[in-house]
Amino acid sequence: VIERRVVVVGAGPAGLSAAIELGRQGVTDVLVVEREAEPGGIPRHSAHQGFGLRDLHRSYSGPRYAAELARRAIDAGAELACSTTVTSLEADDGPRLELTSPSGRQTIEATAVLVATGARERPRAARLIPGDRPSGIFTTGALQQWVEAGLPVGRRAVVLGAEHVSYSAVLTLRHAGVRTVALVTEQPHQQSVRGAGLAARALGVRTLCHHRVVGLQGRERLHSVVVEDVRTAARTELMADTFVASGDWIPDHDLVRRSGLGLDPSTLGPRSDAWGRTGRAGLFAAGNLVHPVETADRCALGGRRAARALADALDGRPGGRLLGVESAEPLRWAWPNLVDPAAPPARLVLRTERFARRAEVVAVEAGRVLGRARLHGGVPHQHSWVDGSILAGATEGPVRLELA
Ligand SMILES: Cc1cc2nc3c(=O)[nH]c(=O)nc-3n(C[C@H](O)[C@H](O)[C@H](O)COP(=O)(O)OP(=O)(O)OC[C@H]3O[C@@H](n4cnc5c(N)ncnc54)[C@H](O)[C@@H]3O)c2cc1C
Fold first, then answer.
1. Cβ of 220: how many Cβ atoms within 10 Å?
2. Distance from Cα 118 to the centre of ligand 1, integer Å
C-alpha cells in the first residue's frame, strides 16, 4: 500500500485545473490518474476553437487546450499517471483506491481524493431506440474520436438531439464529408443558441421538432431511420447510413456509486456543494461528474474551486454545515445540490423538463418560502441559472426548488 497526499481521478479540464490550483495553494504530493493514454479529457478530440474562454481567458482548439492544461499541471508539480484506471474507491474510513495499469495493480491510501471522471452521452441502447443493430451508429463523442483517427464515417446522417453538441455533431460530420439530413428532437424547439437552427438550415439540415426515432433499419450497415411525429403518430423513413445519438448526458458515476457515497437521484452524480465538498471527509467531486453538462471552462473553474476547498481541508478548515437542495417538476435538477446556508453559492444551475421562459424559481424549506428569483439564461429548457442568494436563510433543509 502506497500513501499519497492527494489523488485526482480523471485528467480532464476539471481534474487538471484542480491539480494546477493545488500547486498554487502549496499542496505537494498530488497524483492525477487518467485511464486514457493522454491527459486532457473530452477536449482532446474536439478540434474546433472556443475552449478556455472563462478559465484561461483566450480561445484554444480542444487539443491545444488539453495540452496547455496538462503542461500547467505538470509545471505545478503534479504527477500524471496515464493508461491507469481507478478500479475501486473506498471512502468510508479515509480514501483508499485501487489502480489498474499495464504494469499491474496498486493500492493507494490518500489523505484526500478529488473525483473528476466527467460525463458521457447515453448510447443508443440506453435510450431504448428500437430496431436493428447495424454498424454506422455513434454518439457525438465516439464520432469525434472516429473522425480524429481518420476513419471513414458514411455519406448521409441523422442526428438525434437538437442541443449544442448536436450542432457540433453536424459540423464534425460535414468535416468528414457526411451530409446531415436532419436533427430530430421531441421538444417543440431546438435547445441550442438562437440561430443554431437557422445556421443548420443554411447547410441544408432540417430540425425536426416534435419527432422521435422509432426505428433504425439495416442488416450490416444502417440503411434508414424511421421517425414519428409525437402529435400525429405519422411516420417518415429517412434514408441514412449514419446515426448520431447526441446529448442526453449521464455522469460517469460508476466509481463513486460503487464507493457507497450515493448519487443524487436527479443529477445521477454525487451530491456536492459549489466547492466540491461531498459531505464525506476527504472526498471531493468536480466537473461534469457532479451534473451533466457544462462547458469545459466552467468545469475547469469548478475544479479550481474544489482544489481550494481541498487545500483548506488539508489545513484543518473543513468548511460549514451542508444542507440538501432538491427540485420539483418540471425542474429536472438543481446544482449545487448541497449548500452551506451561511455561504450560499453565487449561482445555481437548473435544468427543466420543458421550456419555461420568464419563469421564477422559489426556494421552499418546510413549507416556508425562503426567497424567489427570476431565471436567467436564454434556454431555460436546457440550462438556466438563478442567483443563489434565494437560499439565504435556510435553517434545517432540505431546501426544495420550485417553478413559480
Ligand atoms: C462531443 C463533445 C463536444 C463538446 N464540445 C465542447 C465545446 O465546444 N466547448 C466546450 O466548452 N465544451 C464542449 N464539450 C464539453 C466539454 O468537453 C466537457 O464539459 C469537459 O470536457 C468536462 O470536463 P471534465 O473534466 O468534467 O470531464 P472529461 O473531459 O470527460 O474528463 C474526465 C476524464 O476522466 C477520465 N476517467 C474517467 N473515469 C476514470 C477512472 N475510473 N480512472 C481514471 N480516469 C478516469 C476520463 O478518461 C477523462 O479523461 C463537448 C463535449 C462533447 C462530448
1. 9
2. 5
